[in-house]
Amino acid sequence: MSKEMAEKATRELEKMQLQEKADIKYKEWLKKKRAEEAEKKKKEKEKEREREAELQEKRTRSEKIFKEWLQNARNKPQPALNGYGFPHGKSTGFADRNLYPAPAYCNPIPWKPIHVPPPQEDSVLTMKKNKRPVSCQPHASLPMVISKPKNNPCVGSLRKR
Predict the structure, then answer these.
(1) What is the DSSP-derived secondary structure letter of residue 155?
(2) Span 46-59, pLDDT tens digits
(3) For the chain, which residues make up each domain, given as ranges?
């Protein structure tokens, strides 16, 4: 019995040692995981800060460019008012329907028609005046004969012979 008790005690002792080793390994793994998560959060926050800094820089740049554009837009000359209601740049008080707006683009090269050479007169003189193409000549018409079939004397039909 003492041997069985000793064996049982050694088994329990081994179990306890294995359990302690497992707990130690688990705690080390947990520390490692928490450190990785903290590092990951730190990197995400850093990226977020960089993104915010880029957005802020972009906003300031765009505001500066807009202000420059606004200053330049005030100094640009206005287009001539040659549209509806403003003939020769003066307001008539009503829209004149006969006026068209000024063209936005004018082609500097004027349009020229394509040169077509006149037909040659020698080919016309060589043909005879009386000669017509075959399709235009009148056809000899065949005489029309009305005949009655032998089996039905009442019905007549037209036949070409």
Answers:
(1) -
(2) 999 999 999 999 99
(3) 1-73
